[in-house]
Amino acid sequence: MSKIPADLRYTKDHEYVRIEGKLAKIGLTDHAQNELTEIVFVELPSVGKEMNAGEVMANLESVKTVSEVFAPISGVVKEANDKLIDSPELLNTDPYGEGWIAVIEVNDAAEASSLMSAEDYRRMLGE
């Protein structure tokens, strides 16, 4: 069973969002990293880039596939997790901690209400 922290919001594409004021920390869920297996490369978004919800934000390469990470919320990229360049395995070992992907300054906080709760995400996974 996947770890699904109750204080986060989730997308059907298996991204999570941790809202902290006007900032949204975005990463890949525990379920997604399990499915991808060993992640070996991450292409991060550029700081300052304007993102629209649903747009490709990052690319991941694992030993078995290449996968896109979509922006769950619209805004400007304020920070990208440069640790992932040298240590992409953080996405596997600590997806909700050191393995976050980017921080976006949110344009419209109401967008977050369209994201799934932990309970909704758990139901979607059939857990």
The CATH architecture comes to Beta Barrel
Q: What fold name goes in the CATH topology slot?
A: OB fold (Dihydrolipoamide Acetyltransferase, E2P)
- Are there runs of 5+ residues with pLDDT below 50, and where? none
Number of domain units: 1
Structural classification: alpha+beta
Could you estimate the helical fraction of the residues in percent?
A: 10-25%
Oligomer category: single chain
**Main beta sheet: strand number and arrangement?**
6 strands, antiparallel
Mean pLDDT level: 95
**Order of secondary-structure elements:** EEEHEEEEEHHEH
Roughly how many Å apart are the termini? Answer: 7 Å
Short description:
The chain is of the alpha+beta class and 127 residues long. It is 18% helix and 35% strand. The chain contains 4 helices and 9 strands.
Could you walk me through the main structural features you see in this protein, from its secondary elements to its overall organization?
This protein has 127 residues and is of the alpha+beta class. It has a single domain, classed as OB fold (Dihydrolipoamide Acetyltransferase, E2P), CATH 2.40.50.100. Helices cover 18% and strands 35% of the residues. It has four helices and nine strands. The strands form two sheets. It has a six-stranded antiparallel β-sheet. The protein has a three-stranded antiparallel β-sheet with strand order 4-6-7, with no helix packed on it. The longest helix is centred in the last third of the chain and has 8 residues, at 118-125. The model has no long low-confidence stretch (mean pLDDT 95).
